[in-house]
Amino acid sequence: MTEINISPEVGAKTITLGVDYYPEHWDESDWDRHASLMSKAHLKVARIAEFAWSRLQPEENRFEFGWLDSAIESLSHHGIKFILGTPTAAPPAWMCAKYPEILPVDETGYRYSFGSRRHRCVNSPALKHETTKIVEAMAERYGTHPFVEGWQIDNELGTGRCYCNCCADAFREWLKKKYGTLDTINRLWGTVFWSQEYAAWEEIPIPKKTLGRHNPSLLLDFARVFSDSNVDYIRLQTEIIRRHSPGRYITTNTGNSPRNDLINQYHFFREQDYAGINNYPGPEDDPAYNAFMLDFLRGIKGKEYIVLEQQEASTGITIMDPITTPAEIRRWTYQAIARGAEKVLYFRWRTCPFGGEQYCQGILDYDGYAGPRHEGIKRTGAELE
């Protein structure tokens, strides 16, 4: 491997390596050993809980924090701080059964079923109500914990538009505030074309699937509403956390930015302390494009950012994904740091033997023992220190 020398003058800011950890996937007897191995690899922070809603709130009016307390205690014992994720990207089954309007609708009018993740409409009043409850409960309990370093809002917001009645209502309210009158909309949108003039606000459709083309002005404003709705959902959670967790930073992650063109990322990160990204360059990707992507993220807030998910192995999309090497992981880590990353968290700690990402390799593999990936990251962490 090429040796990299870091001048002491560069070290004005601390560069931190960390990991995405899912203690709920493993027996509690594994947690202390996991934390010990993280510490040996110079991993200083763990992101936890962003997909654990069903474990944190197994029933509507019952919260279970005991297991998370124990996991945090294991991490804290080994000096590992944590970024606490709000689990709103995965509403539990009981919630979707009681409030089916939470589930999103596609452009054909089909309502998605429960399952997978991000199965929620951010304009749903029921989702906002339940979101307030879980975020309030978590922020009250952990907001001033000495090892809480920061918070991540949701996970990969701004992916997949919804076309439900809640979104239609939000769209029309947004249009009323922007344009004021239907006459203004008809004039500025040119709705006389193809006889699309509106005489009532309820006549304005959301752009579900049609035989031909929608009015391009309608499409553009609906895209803006989708982006603004995600910003509003972030603000809902951010305001709660600011009240209960002063002095901790707030961030969230977007997919491989700037490929995510469904949101205005300057608005998306405006009220957060750091922009965050999931960085999956892959062996087959263009390193120049990946550099541009990281530079773009740094420009969003004009400051350092956080890599909340850094690829460190096969991504697990298929069983035949390309295999990465410790040298590649190290190179991606230094590329992110060189282009402004203040923290780099590897995804994920241990390969999960079940679920939708069971081919997504972790720093530890299925057997849970430290191997080449752990040793490679351990070396990188030692270099940074």
**What percentage of residues falls in helices of 4 or more residues?**
25-40%
Number of helices: 12
Please report the distance between the alpha carbons of the first and last residues: 18 Å
Describe the sheet with the most strands. 8 strands, parallel
E-strand count: 8
Query: What's the order of the H and E elements?
Result: EHEHHEHHEHHHEHEHEHEH
User: Which strand order do you get reading across the main beta sheet?
Assistant: 5-4-3-2-1-8-7-6
Mean pLDDT: 93
Low-confidence stretches: 6-11
Radius of gyration: 22 Å
What structural class do you assign from the helix and strand content? Answer: alpha/beta
Beta-strand residue percentage: 5-15%
Shape: globular
Overview of the structural elements:
The protein is an alpha/beta fold and 385 residues long. Helices cover 39% and strands 10% of the residues. It contains 12 helices and 8 strands. An 8-stranded parallel β-sheet has the order 5-4-3-2-1-8-7-6. The radius of gyration is 22 Å and the shape is globular. The two termini are 18 Å apart. The model is unreliable at 6-11 (pLDDT under 50).
Helices and strands in order:
Blueprint lengths: L15 E5 L7 H13 L4 E4 L4 H4 L9 H12 L3 E5 L7 H6 L26 H18 L5 E5 L12 H15 L2 H8 L26 H29 L4 E3 L13 H4 L7 E4 L7 H15 L3 E7 L14 H13 L2 E7 L24 H13 L1
Parallel strand pairs: 1-2, 1-8, 2-3, 3-4, 4-5, 6-7, 7-8
